[in-house]
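Dear Dr. H.,

I hope your travels went smoothly. While you were away I took the liberty of generating a structure for the chain from your last submission, since the lab meeting agenda had it listed for discussion. I wanted you to have the full record in hand beforehand rather than looking at slides cold. The sequence, exactly as received, is reproduced here:
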Amino acid sequence: MLIDRHLKFQLPHPWKDQVFETKKIGTINFLVGPNGSGKSQFAKTLLGYMRSQGWDTRFLGTDRLNEMTRSPTIEQKFGGHFIQGFDKSRFGHLKTAGAEGSGIDTIVLLEERMDLRIQIEATLSHLFDREILLEWDSGRLIPRAILRGHNQSYRLDRDECHGIKELLVMLTHLYDDQKQNLIIDEPELNLHPQYQSFFMQEVRKIAGDPSIDGKKKAVFLVTHSPFILDFRSEENLRGVISFDLEYSVPKQVHNLLPSNFPYSSFMGRLNGHHKQFFFSDSPIFVEGIRDARIVEAMMEAKGVSVAGAGSCIIDAGGSGEVSHYLELCRGLGKEAHFLYDLDSLFRGHLRFRIKNDESIRLQMAKAGHGKNLDTYCGSLDKKLTEVIDRIFANGVPSNLEPLVKYLHSFGPHRSKWDKQSLRRARTSVVTATSRYRQDMVSVLSEEEVSDIEGRVEAIVAVLKERNIHLLPGGTLERYLPSYSGDEYAPTEVTCPPKTGPGNMLVLGRRKGERWPGRDIRRSR
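The corresponding predicted structure, in token form, is as follows:
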């Protein structure tokens, strides 16, 4: 369930005269994007707007532990503000600092709210075997902790580990039901992955519509962590707000995806690796882990660091899975690249996702191929089926005998093949045309082979305009000089790809263009 709440406010620098507006927010909202894309600035502006609307909102910045961190060297030279504890006469100042994003008021809140203190102590005791003690000494509040099984106490605010202090601060303000909204910048700071997951478990318990249940709150999390980006429902994915380095208006997934987007099946496949694309402007999607490793090796051979360029290579787990990301990345405005094996053209997933893409329809029309890619691909299907029948009926050169053997593996009568077999057969014919052109000419004709090549090249060129890179030579591993497996039914690559100019696949950056660039090409 999304919350009906109209947000509309002017975006700060570095945006220019732009306005963010939405009529719904999630109970949990994830602010994601590359470093430097303005997420923290947005969060602070959101804080001011929500307070101006009378919505009680708490903010925790990335420096929330600043006054709770001990530096013995600095204390020795310059002294420390809270060496002797928290002076009661300064509680008001601590609360003011808390309103600005510091976590220094957490100890004061625990002293004033016994219900919160009991809840926090129970949580820390369960997780870390800690007891919390708040002691008064000459008008100063001193927070202490005792590790169970040990008699000696120590300063909770100065000597405890950062991870536990992070949880102490964030959980205190998460459990505080006097605030309707909570904004946290990088909640993952100092937290082990399992405790990031624990924190999100607690967030899910508290997140809700405060106008319906006063004990619930709307939560906004600025994050770079796939463990914080914890999708458990369609609403969670709809609550993503994406930022980019072009400083376009932040995009909320809820306002982008069509009502028939397969949320449930998509989220079921998202793991920590897949979620990297939320944090990159220019992710690269490939079908499988083999493809990812090949591309990574080739980029390393070129001296290009994918991660250093702020990108990532994501193996989606099949061509159908890659196609899900097409729609999502397009909606989020990401300059994503999608690498497909040739068979994706005949399997249906790719065509279904892009058949209504207006830019592709326009490119098709400009090239004189009509405006319906699906129809154009259908005519190619028909042509390839005719070629398969011709190959069955005629003798072939020795180079094409493996092709004939592969086709016969689907059965001696083409009319009895199922759809999957026919798709594979069409892929194999295009592969053979790419690898053994002259032999195919001897079976067909120069005109017919050129017709097949021209149709495939036209499709490849149109898709390339949308950063969809279709490999006309077959699968990615077939482009490796070291590959020696079946040309039509590729097997696992057991040796690393060769490096240097002999590589047939190149993914790179043009001069003046931000990596990863726009061209994947086959070297001659």
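Two observations you may find useful: The two ends are 55 Å apart (CA to CA). Residues 373-393 form the longest helix (21 residues).

With kind regards,
E. W.
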